[in-house]
Amino acid sequence: MGSYSDEIKINVEAAITSLQAAKGMLRQGELEAAAARAAESAFHTGRALLLDESIESDNHGDVISLIHERFVNERKLTKEQGANLSWLFAMRAAEERPASMRLTWEDAHRAVQIAESFFEAAKVILEA
What we know:
The chain has about 130 residues and is an all-alpha fold. The protein has a single domain, classed as Up-down Bundle (Four Helix Bundle (Hemerythrin (Met), subunit A)), CATH 1.20.120. About 75% of the residues lie in helices and about 0% in strands. The chain is built from five helices and no strands.
């Protein structure tokens, strides 16, 4: 984990906390909040992966771009995972959508699944 090990651990813990919150919100029917917390989990997961590569980024857009560049293009993550992450990061502003554009339960569920899958894939990469 190199010189960023403490920051990586902090981001992994934040990813877990956000993912657990997303699951709870989904169970309670808080769909937009669940999708937003799932995206937050993926952000922290992505930051942990990037820090493991000695890359610092606090911007959501930069994190997703760098994940694609460093992990999808280098085949550490699949293209499908990359596409799913792009979709998920677009959901991060879900709480601010007008009522007519609110997420469905299926969308929120998909967001949580993508975040969880990304976290599991990241654990494998970080433990390698």
